Amino acid sequence: MIGQLKGRVDSTQEGGCIFDVNGVGYLLACSRKTLDALAGRDGVQRVLVETHLRQDAITLYGFADAAEREAFRALIEVKTVGPQKALIVLSSLTPDGLARAIAGKERKRLAEVKGLGAATANRIVDEPAMQKWAVGRATPDADGEGALPATAPERGAEADAVSALVNLGWKQPQAVAAIARVAKRLGEDATLDALIRDGLKEMAR
């Protein structure tokens, strides 16, 4: 089984590239984001590889980093989401963006991925294994908002604010994430009312 390759991009094509390793060209299926990353680098580079064996074919999937390969592995475990649909998702969303969308149950955002569809988007969001993968893995957005925490605060204004959002009908993981981002933005002196107010705005985004 091939786990990684070191070489150069010989050529790119729709959905993949030819990766030259000492004169041997490996056909890799890749997301658009990985292709862009590879094209933007000079010299010898490393590509992580996921090898899939079938009776009639051997397919190599290439990834620019471990985070994308991990997201790919998680996605293909969802019923009806095969490798090609997983690459479609990862061509539109970074692993961190995907984690935030799943943890936040942003069904519309996933459904808007071209070629995915609402039914598959819902299946991804509702899959318990995907929720487990996503919660706690999201990293800061470009605007500096914080990562999704894995556990709820036990006491204080943040805990009360999370409880208030849950009582209003929001799921706890999303409420925890929203209040964590708001608390980071408002600072230690944030009041309960401010946390709840901005938390509701956060959830409505």
Automatic annotation (TrEMBL):
InterPro entries: DNA_helicase_Holl-junc_RuvA_I, NA-bd_OB-fold, RuvA, RuvA_2-like, RuvA_C, RuvA_C_sf
Location, primary (coarse class): cytoplasm
The entry's keywords: Cytoplasm, DNA damage, DNA recombination, DNA repair, DNA-binding
CDD domains according to UniProt: UBA_RuvA_C (cd14332)
GO biological process entries: DNA recombination; DNA repair
Domain I as annotated region, ranges: 1-64
Chain residue ranges for the region called Domain III: 152-205
Pfam families (alphabetical): HHH_5 (PF14520), RuvA_C (PF07499), RuvA_N (PF01330)
One annotated GO molecular function: four-way junction helicase activity
Alphabetized HAMAP family for the sequence: DNA_HJ_migration_RuvA (MF_00031)
Domain remark from Swiss-Prot or TrEMBL: Has three domains with a flexible linker between the domains II and III and assumes an 'L' shape. Domain III is highly mobile and contacts RuvB.
Family, per entry: Belongs to the RuvA family.
Subunit: Homotetramer. Forms an RuvA(8)-RuvB(12)-Holliday junction (HJ) complex. HJ DNA is sandwiched between 2 RuvA tetramers; dsDNA enters through RuvA and exits via RuvB. An RuvB hexamer assembles on each DNA strand where it exits the tetramer. Each RuvB hexamer is contacted by two RuvA subunits (via domain III) on 2 adjacent RuvB subunits; this complex drives branch migration. In the full resolvosome a probable DNA-RuvA(4)-RuvB(12)-RuvC(2) complex forms which resolves the HJ.
Name this protein carries in UniProt: Holliday junction branch migration complex subunit RuvA
The species this protein was found in: Neoroseomonas soli
